[in-house]
């Protein structure tokens, strides 16, 4: 059987920033990589008005994600067809198709059906705070965790295929040390680092990281995937404010926390598939 990894995120570009090197590395090594994206990022910022308008942004970002997926070697890309909910407290939160308003009874069975069809060995999604508190990130975390367990339970959704127990569930876990290193690199070249006060509170505790994956062999693919997302990866992006060599240095390691099975304290794995 070909080993399979399923990544589940909320918006186009979520997959590249946190896991682009890993998805590329596994795809290059023969792992079948599938990606679920809940929305098309319809209300994201537009880095350059020549790239898209608010009316066309969803279609443009879908094309950007297809570009990134091809760059990373992703075998299957699935959109859930919900609408970007926007940042917390914005009017977009109230849109009837906003992902945060989607009933659990709709989202979880859809994900269960996907998991039972694809039958992944490893599932990856956001950690509980969604990296930095975005409502859609938190929602896709919650729904993915519920679906991960429901997919293995024969008593749940018996009409959606035979039960499947993935062997591991991982969270993307950007550690506090990552934000501190980025802050120090920016400060060293004279950039303003005031905004890092908000990022530091979101950083995942370093001692709870279970996998530090060296993706230097595929950092170029990650960089190319990010550049596919040109409406989002503009000059104001934090990585763009660093010299490219420093940005790629930071991007050459990706971090994961094992959510299931629950890891013993201090567990360190060299790979998401180690021992499977």
Give the assembly state of these chains: single chain
The percentage helix is 25-40%
Strand content: 15-25%
Rounded to the nearest angstrom, the distance between the terminal CA atoms is: 12 Å
C-alpha Rg (nearest Å): 18 Å
Gross morphology: globular
Please state the structural category.
Answer: alpha/beta
* Strand runs, count: 7
State the strand order across the main sheet: 3-2-1-4-5-7-6
Key descriptive features of the protein:
8 helices; alpha/beta; 276 residues; globular; seven-stranded mixed β-sheet
Write structural notes for this entry.
This protein has 276 residues and is α/β, with parallel strands linked by helices. It has helices at residues 14-28, 57-72, 104-118, 135-150, 176-188, 196-200, 219-228, 244-251, and strands at residues 4-9, 32-39, 76-82, 122-126, 168-172, 211-214, 253-260. A seven-stranded mixed β-sheet has the order 3-2-1-4-5-7-6, with helices on both faces. Helix 1 (14-28) links the parallel strand 1 and strand 2. The longest helix is centred in the first third of the chain and has 16 residues, at 57-72.
């Amino acid at each position: 059987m070909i080993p399979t990894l399923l990544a589940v995120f909320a918006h186009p570009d979520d997959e590249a920033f946190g896991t682009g090197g890993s998805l590329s590395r596994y795809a290059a090594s023969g792992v079948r990589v599938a990606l679920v994206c809940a929305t098309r990022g319809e209300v994201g910022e537009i880095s350059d008005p020549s790239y898209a308008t608010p009316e066309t942004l969803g279609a443009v970002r879908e094309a950007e994600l297809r570009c990134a997926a091809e760059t990373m070697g992703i075998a299957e890309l699935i959109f859930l067809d919900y609408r970007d909910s926007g940042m917390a407290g914005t009017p977009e939160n109230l849109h009837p198709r906003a992902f945060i308003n989607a009933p659990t009874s709709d989202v979880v069975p859809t994900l269960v059906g996907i998991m039972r069809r694809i039958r992944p060995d490893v599932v990856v999604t956001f950690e509980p705070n969604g990296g930095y508190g975005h409502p859609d990130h938190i929602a896709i975390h919650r729904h993915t965790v519920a679906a991960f367990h429901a997919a293995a339970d024969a008593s749940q959704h018996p009409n959606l295929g035979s039960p499947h127990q993935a062997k591991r569930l991982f969270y993307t876990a950007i550690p506090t040390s990552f934000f501190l290193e980025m802050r120090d690199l920016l400060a060293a070249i004279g950039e303003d680092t005031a905004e890092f006060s908000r990022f530091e509170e979101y950083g995942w505790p370093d001692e709870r990281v279970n996998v530090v994956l060296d993706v230097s062999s595929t950092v170029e693919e990650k960089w190319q995937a990010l550049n596919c997302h040109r409406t989002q990866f503009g000059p104001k992006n934090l990585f763009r404010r660093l010299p490219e060599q420093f940005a790629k240095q930071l991007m050459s390691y990706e971090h994961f926390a094992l959510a299931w099975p629950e890891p013993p304290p201090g567990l360190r794995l060299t790979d998401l598939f180690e021992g499977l």
